[in-house]
Every structure is written in C-alpha cells, then in structure tokens.
Amino acid sequence: MDGRKGRKKDGRNTHLYLISDKMAKLSRDFMDELVFDKEIKDESVVMGPAYGEDAAVIDMGDNFLVAHSDPISGALDNIGWLAINIAANDIAVCGARPRWALISAQFPKDNPDKIIREIILDIYQAAQTLNIDIVGGHSESIDSIEQPLITTSLLGTTQNPTYTKDAKPGDKIIQIDEAAIEGTWILASDFGEELKERGVEEEVISKARSLRDEISVVDSALAIRDEVNSMHDPTEGGIFQGLYEMAQASKCSFVIESRPKIKDITEKICETLEIDPFKLISSGCLLATIPEDEELDSGKIIGRVEKGESGVIYQGKSIEPVYEDELFKAIRSLDRG
Asked: Do domains 4-158 and 164-336 have the same CATH topology?
C-alpha cells in the first residue's frame, strides 16, 4: 500500500511527496489490527492483504489473477507516467505480466483542460509502452482537493505467482539494478538549482534527471520470474526497508554481506545532502532470492537468507524498519536553503 502525494512550491513541481512530509504507509501494528488479520472467505484468494506482499493473487482455475492498486496525487508533469509504472512494478514482481488498468482520476475544479489532457495522454503513453490496456475507470472534477489524484488498479496474469514470503533459508539475496534510482531522479529534477548551489556538478544533475525510464522493473522481473523463490520492489524507505519487508514476510533473517549497488551520481547527491542512499526511495531496484545452488545472469549477490529472527543484518548490525524516507530529510534541508 503505497501513498504518494505531489506538491507545488514556488512554481516548481515535486514528483513525489508524501502526506505530512512522511511515508504515507500506516504502521505495521495498525494494519495488523485493521486489515491483515481479517478473514477472507473466498478460497480462490490465495494471497490477500499481507505485510511485504506487493499484490493480491486469485486462483482463476487455468491461471492466477494478480491485482494491485496505487494512488499518486499531485499537479506534476509525470503523474500519469508514474501512475502506470509504479503499479506495474508491483504486478511484475509477483511474476505476472501487467495487462489491464482501471484509472480513477480526480481533478480540482479549477484544473485547466490543458493539464487534464496532458495527464490522461501521459497515462496512455505509459500504458502503451508496457503493452497495458486501459479498460475502465472513473473521472471527475471536485472542490475538495487542490491537486490531481490518480489511482491505478492494475491486473495481470501468471501461471506461477511469486511471493515475497517465499524466501527460504539458504537462498542467495540478489539485487538487480541500483538502489535509490527514483530518489536520485526526484532530487535532481526538482532541486537541480539547489544542488548546484551546494556544489553538485551540472553533469551529475543532468544524468540524474535522465533516470525516469529506469524506474520500471517490469522487464527485469519477468525475465527472472521462473528462476527465483521470491521478489520484491523496494519503494519508500529504500532498499533497507525493502529487505526488511522481505525478512518479515518470510520470517527469516536477511544477512547482507556486500554493499548494495548505487550509481555514482546517487553517491554524489546523497553525500552532498548527508542522506543515506540505502533509505532513499528505490523504485527501479529489484530484490530477489534464489536457491543457493542456482545462478542468475543478471544482478549482484549481496547476502544470504538464514534461519533466525525476522530482520536484516548489515555489517554486523541490525537494521531497523525505516519510518521516514531520506527524501524528506533532503527536501527539508533544501527548502531551508
């Protein structure tokens, strides 16, 4: 469950900003009480709401239907593109090809037709790129919001679903593509001038601004779905939070032995802002576990799954759950100048 809220400040669009400047995910305890412990009576539902899982899975007889919903709000240039791609990632890491989308689009009453048109066309362009059909939805203009709210319900199918919980002791932990790609892109796109004032080179900012198309993990996930025990799409809280969710879902200990991969441009921006790249929003990175006697053609082995208390160990220390993404620490710092 993944809430994203855009904002606009001084004429500048922020691609991702969460409610109250913090991660919008409700606490684990709160979700356990209100959602995760509720009975599902339909036996065809093989995966309902669960901590760390990316989508629901329903047995349709000849295959499995995978379903996920994600809201993104904000008057921003890339909202339509994000609405499709972020939801598609969650379908793909369940081993399913994203196929059908239903879009619920709410716009402020005073939104110009030009902006509405751009957002809707952006949705269709992103869907076309991933061979997803828009099959329905809802749209309206209302008084009670100040920014657009786009919610995507995305469906896909697979013969063999993949679950976060299926990591097993002995598995190797694989990282495919670098951590913090999305966070790097956001910071460079929305705070380029501020980064330059703090000494970040124009070349670094320019490269970071070009990372948008690297946020999709659909192709990567589908390429390895038959070779893995589990997959997960780390988003808010970065790769550390993604690993923590996998450990909790599988009830295993994730021991990280190698430094997770990040891009040089991410390293530079994070060093400048004094933030932890491993706790920075990480769409574009794919985490997987594979049996210890198997190999993948792509990715880096960063650790192993062990029996033991559910959690993450990195460099001999226990990693706590990430309650606030480093993006917001960075934004507060940049806003203060």
From this structure: no
Which tokens go with 42?
Answer: 């339909």
Fold of the 164-336 domain: Phosphoribosyl-aminoimidazole Synthetase; Chain A, domain 2 (3.90.650)
Q: What is the rounded CA–CA span in Å between residue 261 and residue 118?
A: 35
pLDDT tens for the 337 residues of the chain, in order: 444 444 444 444 444 444 334 445 677 788 888 888 888 999 999 999 888 888 999 999 999 999 999 888 543 668 899 999 999 999 999 999 999 999 999 999 988 888 899 999 999 999 999 999 999 999 999 988 888 899 999 999 999 999 999 999 999 999 999 999 999 998 998 899 999 999 999 999 999 999 999 999 999 999 999 999 999 999 999 999 999 999 999 999 999 999 999 999 999 999 999 999 999 999 999 999 999 999 999 999 999 999 999 999 999 999 999 989 999 899 888 876 6
In the chain, what are the domain boundaries?
Answer: 4-158, 164-336
Superfamily name and number for 4-158: PurM-like, N-terminal domain (3.30.1330.10)
Angle (CA) 46-165-233 rounded to 5° is: 100
Q: What share of the chain is helix, strand, coil (3-state, %, to 5)?
A: 35, 30, 35
Pick left, alpha or beta for residue 146 (phi over 0 → left; psi -120 to 50 → alpha; otherwise beta). Answer: alpha
Tokens of 17: 């900003």
